[in-house]
Specification:
The complex is a heterodimer of chains A (544) and B (74).
Chain A lengths: L6 H12 L6 E3 L12 H5 L6 H4 L4 H8 L2 E3 L2 E7 L4 E6 L5 E5 L3 E3 L3 E3 L12 E2 L4 H12 L5 E5 L3 H11 L4 E5 L11 H13 L3 E3 L4 E7 L2 E7 L3 E3 L2 E4 L3 E3 L2 H5 L23 E3 L6 E2 L6 E2 L4 H15 L14 E5 L2 E7 L2 H6 L4 E9 L10 E9 L5 E8 L4 H12 L4 H5 L15 H13 L5 E2 L1 H6 L5 E4 L3 H6 L6 E2 L18 E4 L4 H12 L5 E4 L12
Parallel strand pairs in A: 1-2, 6-17, 8-15, 9-10, 9-15, 10-11, 25-29, 26-27, 26-28, 28-29
Antiparallel strand pairs in A: 3-4, 4-5, 7-16, 12-13, 13-14, 18-19, 20-21, 21-24, 22-23, 23-24
Chain B lengths: L2 E6 L6 H12 L5 E6 L3 H13 L2 E7 L4 E6 L2
Parallel strand pairs in B: 1-2
Antiparallel strand pairs in B: 2-4, 3-4
Classes of the chains: A alpha/beta (544), B alpha+beta (74).
Chain lengths: 544, 74
């Protein structure tokens, strides 16, 4: 086994459980094994206080429990697949050791991608991948050496680190090359999260490219983007990771289109007897059936178990694919995603219908309820669910997991709408958020409701007549630029005011009152009315 | 100067802000309006309302289940 974080140790443990006589050696160049890589941001922020909390098992504990030898600080140098041995360098002693195998598992993981820019090697420029990375960053903070930090990259790790640094009273700026943070999410959901983080006091600069990092006496001082200079005494590079495939490539193991190691359902590579698991290996997207790469702890552990079973002779149930389900906590906001985003679905050639529906995570009369916004994406022709994103201060993991389950079993929107989900006021609304979203999407699919989503509305604000039908106070507080105000109760008697307009968009708080008013206007013969999906509470652009 | 106390607990958006809006119309300059609310959308609403109207948000206390604000009419 080469590699000993999640997938490597999981594979080893599973083999041993299936075959107690198996002789297993795990080697890793790292000092730590079996650690919670996803927990590193929280260690930096002190939420997780102790280093030992991050490390699930030490090599000694792992040996004691599993009877498997793990050698740390031992770096695999080359694989000799014909003769079936691996040469590895002992980093401390400096000598080369030889390990023979019948079967070999590559669990070599992924490495943070570091842009080749001036100053990337300065002191104070860090990545967050290993336990030592996190220890180094935290000791800088504990020394009081950090008052301003820049996080390059607005993906999960970057955002989690940003939150944790902010919690340490450090002024944090995020620089993201894409149009918004959370690049894998659709724009309107990502911007909702982005506005939330900005409100918490994190500076966020999107559509910006980091040009260079400047330092003094070898230590980082500021970061230069194509738009500005930002002072920093700590820079976190989190622009993404790439699979570690060098060892595999050297012996001609086939890589997939994602540049990760190509494996079948049982984690077998193109060379017999060699397996690949975890972040170094490719996945299949369950919806498209096409190769995809999801370097996730959840997927890595599954791959490890399947490789272990497969190697010990059980090839009944392989890994058919994954959905790329993810979730992140940003301060008190939670954001989850499963399946394809609208953008990905269109790119994959699907004709999609989507909807955005705000709802609550519990009954609205139960103390402590919070709003959550569901975006549901389905195939317009087959009605199969393609993906979902849920964001809000409330519980989002439940709806995301429900939808992930539904997608896994090939559900249509009609199936989702009729799910019998657990209900009592402390847990859910009587009509759960997922069911409401399905209802709204079916209304759209059946042509009962004509909606416009926020990004389309924003693009076409100059061409459309936006009518805010909420009460006077709400309209005064904030509305969409250019919106006129006709309260819903006056809409019918003032309908003549709207007669000469080409296209009308009704807006309310969440979309419900607008839908009711839309039906009334339809009855009066208006053909040109639409409603703002998700209402003003899901509209992430400028309000006045 | 008068004190107005509004119990808007249990009212959903826009209920609480509509109440504040009405009360502020009746109130005189310098009057205090205390509001208790359970709807969390109110926090952003009241901040934006004060900004727009120039009334002062003197206090905002937030617990898991309740929000209390004190506003002074300008």
């Amino acid at each position: 086994m080469i590699g000993a974080v999640a997938a490597g140790t999981k594979t080893a443990a599973k083999i041993k459980r299936e075959n107690a006589d198996a002789e297993i050696v795990v080697i890793t160049k790292d000092e730590h094994i079996s650690y919670a890589g996803c927990g590193l941001p929280y260690f930096i922020g002190g939420v997780i206080e102790e280093e030992k909390e991050l490390v699930v098992k030490t090599p000694q504990e792992f040996k004691q429990i599993t009877d498997i030898d793990v050698y740390t600080k031992l770096e695999a140098m080359s694989i000799h697949s014909k003769e079936k041995y691996v040469l590895a360098m002992d980093i401390l002693e400096g000598n080369v050791k030889k390990y023979s195998y019948d079967k070999l598992v590559l669990a070599t993981g992924a490495t943070p991608f570091i842009p080749q820019i001036e100053g990337a090697d300065l002191q104070g420029v860090h990545t967050v991948r290993t336990v030592n990375d996190a220890i180094n960053i935290r000791s800088l903070i504990d020394k009081g050496a950090v008052s301003k930090a820049v996080v390059v990259g607005g993906g999960f790790i970057g955002l989690e680190v940003a939150e944790n640094l902010h919690g340490k009273n450090i002024e944090v700026s995020i620089v993201e090359f894409a149009h918004h943070i959370l690049p894998s999410f659709d724009e309107e959901i990502a911007l909702y999260a982005q506005n939330y983080m900005s409100d918490q006091g994190v500076n966020i600069y999107t559509c910006e490219k980091v040009i260079s990092i400047k330092g003094e006496e070898g230590r980082v001082k500021k970061i230069i983007t194509d738009q500005r200079e930002i002072e920093a005494d700590l820079v976190i590079m989190s622009v993404g990771v790439k699979p570690n495939t060098k060892l595999a490539e050297e012996i001609g193991i086939e890589l997939g289109v994602t540049n990760a190691i190509k494996v079948n359902n049982f984690m077998e590579t193109s060379i017999e007897g060699i397996y690949a698991v975890g972040d170094c290996a490719e996945n299949v997207n369950l919806i498209t059936g096409k190769p995809a790469w999801y370097p996730m702890g959840s997927t890595a552990n599954k791959m490890g178990r399947i490789a272990g079973l497969s190697m010990t002779g059980d090839q009944k149930n392989g890994l058919k694919g994954v959905l790329g389900t993810t979730i992140v906590k940003l301060f008190k906001l939670n954001a989850g995603k499963t399946g394809l985003s609208e953008r990905e679905a269109i790119k994959q050639g699907f004709e999609v219908e989507t909807v955005i529906v705000p709802a609550n995570d519990k009954a609205h009369y139960y103390p402590g309820y919070r709003q959550i916004i569901t975006k549901l994406i389905a195939d317009k022709n087959t009605h199969k669910i393609l993906g979902a994103q849920v964001v809000g201060e409330g519980v989002v993991d439940k709806p995301i997991d429900v939808i992930a389950t539904a997608i896994t079993f090939g559900a249509k929107v009609e199936d989702l709408e009729n799910l019998d989900l657990a209900y009592a006021p402390p847990f859910s609304m009587a009509m759960a958020s997922t069911i409401l979203a399905s209802n709204a999407l079916l209304n759209k699919l059946a042509g009962r409701m004509n909606g416009i989503n926020s990004f389309e509305l924003k693009k076409r604000l100059d061409e459309l007549l936006v009518v805010d039908i909420r009460d006077e106070a709400s309209y005064l507080i904030r509305t969409i630029p250019g919106a006129i105000h006709i309260p819903s109760e006056e809409l019918i008697c003032r309908a003549d005011e709207l007669k000469n307009n080409e296209e009308i968009v009704l807006i309310c708080k969440v979309g419900k009152i607008a839908y009711l008013s839309y039906l009334k206007l339809k009855k009066l013969g208006f053909q040109n009315v639409r409603i703002l999906e998700g209402g003003i509470s899901s509209y992430p652009y400028e309000l006045v | 100067m008068a004190d107005f106390n509004l119990n808007c607990k249990g009212l959903q958006c826009p209920g609480p802000i509509v109440q504040v809006f009405k009360t502020a119309k009746e109130a005189q300059s310098g009057d205090i309006i205390n509001v208790k609310v359970t709807d969390r959308g109110f926090i952003k609403d009241i901040q934006a309302w004060c900004k727009k109207t120039g009334n002062e948000l003197k206090e905002l206390n937030e617990t898991e289940t309740e929000i209390q604000v004190k506003i002074q009419k300008k």
